[in-house]
Amino acid sequence: MKIAIFASGNGSNFQAILDVIKEKKLPISIEFLFCDQPQAFVIKRALKQSILAYCFSQKSFTTKEEYEMELLKLLKKHQVEWIILAGYMRLIGTTLLKYYTERIINIHPSLLPNFKGMHAIEEAYQAGVAQTGITIHYVDQGMDTGTIIAQEIMPISKEDTLESLEKKIHQLEHQLYPKVLADIFTKAERKKTKDAKKASVNKCFE
Length: 206
What we know:
Elements: E1 2-7, H1 12-22, E2 29-35, H2 41-48, E3 53-55, H3 64-77, E4 82-85, H4 94-99, E5 104-108, H5 120-127, E6 131-138, E7 148-155, H6 162-204
Parallel strand pairs: 1-2, 1-4, 2-3, 4-5
Antiparallel strand pairs: 5-6, 6-7
Helix pairs in contact: 1-6
């Protein structure tokens, strides 16, 4: 299964996915990394593993549509079947969603629909809730509003600081994201093989 990973920052989830691929527990091929921040550490992670990396900013384009059309050219060039978001800090627009409906996956550091947006861990901590967690979901036009695929709870103890909670949340992300992706892509690969066999049989009877 050919995928592209979109990221904007450090790339710890990108690294977690890479590690599982090396262990042959994730049936995917990373065709390229796309990053919209030229100084982001995730680019170094990709290049260290000889993974192709593209980087350009939406600011270089007049409209979001033009920006996403350029991305779409890259995706088509590399025959990418799925897009994985790993800390990509931009909303996906209609141009990409049109071609990748329910084939764009994101991970968010809260139990959606609670605490949407960029500061989810801090907001959960400041709210004094007893638990938070992570959510893996399909991407739609809204902010963290797509169909939920999986969630896992993380209790917040009285001893937790914001820093310790962030660390625990990220550790949970690194464990769950590759597992859920492995399940999704294993099923997708089986369906792809089944559909190909069915098409081959139908062609024989034409």
